[in-house]
Amino acid sequence: MKHKRATLTALAAAAVLTTAGAAWYTTLDTPAGTGPSATAHGLCLPATETDADKAGYARTIALVTVEKTVEYREGSSDPGGVLISRVKVDQTLKGTPAETLTIGQSVLPVAGGGYAKTKPAYLPLEAGHQYVVGTVPDTDYGDGWVRFVTSADTDTTAAVQRWTTAVAQQAAPHPNPACTDTTTTNTTP
Fold it and tell me: In the beta sheet, which residues pair with residue 96?
């Protein structure tokens, strides 16, 4: 029984490593030989493709001004690390944040200083700039973890309107619809 579970765990780990963009884990509904067919469930990360998806996942959404970088924490084995910033809440769009927040976000340092800006919906926070941020609670980084960031420097009114609309249309967190991989077999493992 333990050997079967270890094998299944190893296979599940291999699936995680070979499947880009999805988080997987495998569970068995019934122990081997004790009931009906086993069903393996692959669970993907929540869908966050649209603004409404992102708004539904974030606990807090606010227009903020970055006061300062508090610290940078180097990652353990992956490249990059965590940028922790202190921000002043200029306008609350969802939730009840404090007037100032300390929040963490994943970043990738680049040669010559600064951080990679490869994802428009996840810009690194820079002191003195204004952004709309969506966060989820995470005490490891102070008041939360950044789920999305969009610039509000050039058109604050448009940025606030975009996310006010997203909050009004927010979708509850749900699996990515592309993840339709639940499989039922007629044999037990």
Answer: none
